[in-house]
Amino acid sequence: MARSLALPELCACRLILYAMSWPERLPTGGSGLISGDERANFEQPDNDRFPGPPAGADALAAGGSMSAVLNGANEVVVDAFLHEKILSAIIARLCGGDAMQAVLRIAHPTRSSRCSSATAARQKAAALPGAFGA
Known about the structure:
The protein is an all-alpha fold. The chain contains five helices and no strands. The radius of gyration is 18 Å and the shape is globular.
């Protein structure tokens, strides 16, 4: 039987929570995301084809200011991709690897230091050697 997501239940936050809690399921509230007694099942992600989620997981595992660093670098790198300066295949490497290694991790960041970390990551991402074909 085909699974169908109920339209009134398509709140983005709940869908993200449902997907991110794979393979266990966290309560999402409401009457559920799928019809009947069925479950929406997700396969193990292919991290070689889709390296972005592991970069996010690495930032979360590192803790502190690393999620702000990843976000700041991502802004610059995705902008370069959208302006056809880089290929999509290197986005995760530039954001998750190179930029996160280039910016100091702050263990207990304040709001201000998170903003500073994101700014530093934007600058580092823009200056990475060969990042944009320079």
